[in-house]
Amino acid sequence: MRRPIRIFGPVVTLLSVVSSGHAAIALGACNLLTGASDLSTDVGAGGPNDGTGGPSGPDGSTTNGSSSTDPGTDGGANRDAAADVDVPDGYVPGKRVFVISSTVTGNFGGVAQAKTECTQAAAGLGGTWMAWVSVAGDDAVDRLTTDGPFRLVDGTLVATNKAALLAGTLSSAINKNERGQTVSGFLATSWTGTGRNGRSTGDDCQGWTSANQSDIATVGSVTAPDGGWTDVYDAVGSGGGCSSTFKLYCFEL
């Protein structure tokens, strides 16, 4: 008489072949899963879930190696595996950077007010922020007191450290606003007053207090993956000068 063989854990295809009065059982297509529970076979009546598979241990499991949980579970060994989050090798969270979703003229009120603009834009992000703008005697590079790495708000790497920022070796342009939206077109320009060395160029809309077309300021291109991110050209009168409306870069400290 053939007796059933029950396999708990991996999926097994059971083939029963009767030949010449002898029962031959072939187990095939066994998909062994890493970390799965031990296989338990029960030849004979009863099983691990009917109370006859063996005496119960103090934790409710049976002594034949089967768990009191439903077939296919591992009794808890891998119960939380689905909650694990895959993180790329070498990933470092770093500091966030974005351009504000709004725009301002060159008369936005100076370095302190630019910082306020960043703080207000980042209200839903948390953290402490600075604006990448310079004036004579107050260079943006000196206020950026963290060495990164720097990432967009969606986690995309911009630069591995401050040196990479200044060298213009960006992994990605700083082309996302605080909401993670891509900025492009004519609006993809940011006031900086800051050269590629991170220091004031002296062109800053009269210390960021002028919206006159005749005044000028250094601006950066939001779409530039090189040193142009901070210094791509000077906004001059023919292009609107300080009356233009551009964005601001915001760095998390």
UniProtKB/TrEMBL annotation:
Signal peptide region: 1-23
Record carries keyword Transcription regulation: no
Region (Disordered): 43-86
Compositionally biased spans, kind Low complexity: 58-72
Domain of life: Bacteria
SUPFAM superfamilies (UniProt xref): C-type lectin-like
Keyword Signal: yes
PROSITE patterns linked: PROKAR_LIPOPROTEIN (PS51257)
The name this protein goes by in its record: Tryptophan synthase alpha chain
Lineage of origin: Bacteria, Pseudomonadati, Myxococcota, Polyangia, Polyangiales
